[in-house]
Specification:
Number of strands: 0
Radius of gyration: 18 Å
Distance between the termini: 52 Å
Number of helices: 9
Helix content: over 70%
Largest sheet: none
Length: 239
């Protein structure tokens, strides 16, 4: 148990190994199951509640256990463990959304929580394999985030509007400015990958350098928000 929860491990994570592919399959299966149950989620209160609270518990336990692991192993730092990346923020907004079911938190979660979490699942910045706590925390957390965010949108499809694309985008730009001009420089952090790209191979490798990197980030975010809205409206949203 000490080794499993220790600060380090000798078992390195291998991308697209069987363990990785199984995690991706579970994440995709959950998304398919939620979409298939979209009508029942709105019509059957018991099913809604049966999924709502376990999703909230998964998000909370994942974040709390990670903070506890970092503190007890004396590796916690503001620059490394604060939930300020998009996935961390999406986890927080989804928790608030699951508690309140208010439109703003549902909209934020839908746009920032589904694609970023899936990209993180495909190209994880993960040092250790399944023999270590970090593996289980990462995949349970990053599988739960898109599940919870999609669940919220499916339960309240009326909140996903064209206007929400631009309102959430404006909030994300303001948040990115706060992180890029204040938080990252003051704390020597790399939240939102505004200081440098991820250490693993990712789509950000194709975004160019310098000013073009930030322009492409902004344009891509808006494009992805709009595509998500169109897909939701066409294939998921109730008439």
């Amino acid at each position: 148990m000490e080794t499993w929860f220790a600060a380090t491990s000798t078992h390195s994570f291998n991308p697209f190994s069987l363990n990785h592919l199984l995690a991706l399959a579970i994440a995709a299966a959950g998304i398919i199951a939620l979409v298939s149950a979209k009508k029942r989620l709105r019509e059957q209160k018991r099913l809604f509640q049966w999924l709502r609270w376990p999703l909230l518990a998964l998000l909370f336990v994942s974040e709390f256990s990670y903070q506890y692991w970092a503190i007890t192993n004396e590796v916690w730092s503001f620059s490394g463990q604060m939930p300020l990346h998009l996935c961390g923020i999406a986890s927080l907004t989804a928790m608030i959304g699951l508690l309140t079911m208010r439109p703003l938190w549902i909209q934020l979660s839908f746009y920032i929580g589904i694609l970023p979490a899936f990209l993180a699942l495909i190209t994880p910045e993960l040092p250790y394999d399944y023999q270590h706590f970090r593996f289980w925390k990462f995949f349970i957390h990053h599988i739960s985030i898109p599940w919870a965010c999609l669940f919220l949108a499916l339960c309240r499809p009326d909140t996903i509007t064209l206007r929400s694309v631009f309102s959430v985008y404006t909030l994300v730009l303001a948040y990115a400015a706060l992180i890029g001009f204040w938080i990252n420089p003051l704390t020597d952090s790399n939240y939102l990958y505004l200081m440098q790209r991820p250490t693993t191979t990712s789509p950000l490798d194709f975004f160019g350098d310098g000013l073009w990197y930030y322009i492409n980030l902004c344009l891509t975010a808006l494009l992805l928000f709009f595509i998500q809205y169109l897909l939701f409206r066409k294939f998921i949203k109730a008439p």
